[in-house]
Amino acid sequence: MRLIVAAGLVALLVALFGTPLLIKFLRTRGFAPEIRQSTGAVAYPAHEAKRGTPSMGGLAIILATVIGYAVAHLWVGTPPTVSGLLALGLMVALGAVGLVDDYLKVFKRRSAGVRARTKLIGQTVVALTFGWLALNLESGNGEPSVIEAAISFIRDLPVVVPVGLFLIWVWLLITATTNAVNLTDGLDGLAAGAAGLTIGSYVLIGLFQFGQSCSTNLESGCYEVRDPLDLAVFAAAVAGSLVGFLWWNSRPASIFMGDTGSLALGGAIAALALLTRTQLLLLLLGGLFVVVTLSVIAQVLSFKLFKRRVLRMAPLHHHFELSGWREEQIVVRLWIVQVLFVAAGLAVFYSEWVGG
After folding, report:
1. Least crowded by CB within 10 Å, which of 12, 17, 182, 307?
2. Is 281 within the bounds of a domain?
3. How many other CB atoms are there within 10 angstroms of residue 139's CB atom?
4. What is the pTM for the complete model shown?
């Protein structure tokens, strides 16, 4: 428990007091993204007041997470685990992909950033590398691989799939999650708050799996999850960094997380779902991200098939903006929706254990 508290507290403090330094550094160099403006053909929400707000705030989230995770282990005197390092590595690697995108948006004034195909290639390389390592890395104690080639819900389902197909599934899960968080990052504090709720739920899941782990408890229904306590430590570090960052990212935002942050957070969430073997449960734990993604899919399909839009603008939160809702209303109400999704996910997780 000391590890979890230390990781979360250190990450929170680093993000809370480190983010203003990053804001100052970015502002003095004019590192702010372009703001889309309405034209005669396309109407965008009125975000002119956000002009000049620096991006790349994800750097603060990543740095705070790394420091929180590392300091917690140094303080308690325990080494990091393979699972924790894999989760941290996926988060940092995808954050690097997002950083390139933010660089082009800010420095090259290319509003679209990296071309979609190029970004997808970067995500694919990172996802497949993570999947291969997770399947093949073993500890010096002869422990099993971090994950098995099986789809999971609350634990691994009995059907084992070929390794090649499982790597495709890992790629799909990581890519979908990172892009879903990226789509949700459109209003001040929205993505940071929603991601914090999802990642916070994995602190509880990791703790529960640790207490009921098959390595220490051979009762029927125990969890065959590698390093669940360290995954909870990692989740606590990410959650703590988000609380500190949200102080500066809430409306009116002093800094945006950018693709650096949204891709990194998507990677952290996907890593936790894969390593805790709760892949399909993520549909509930990340329910808001699923809804936002579906709103974009519905908009695109409706326009291509019927030449009509189902929303004023996609993603969903921009539809509410153009419908006259205030930004604070949208963010808080969507946070409430995410709370309900997370509560449902945790209820399903715990009820599976109670039901045997």
Report:
1. 307
2. yes
3. 14
4. 0.92
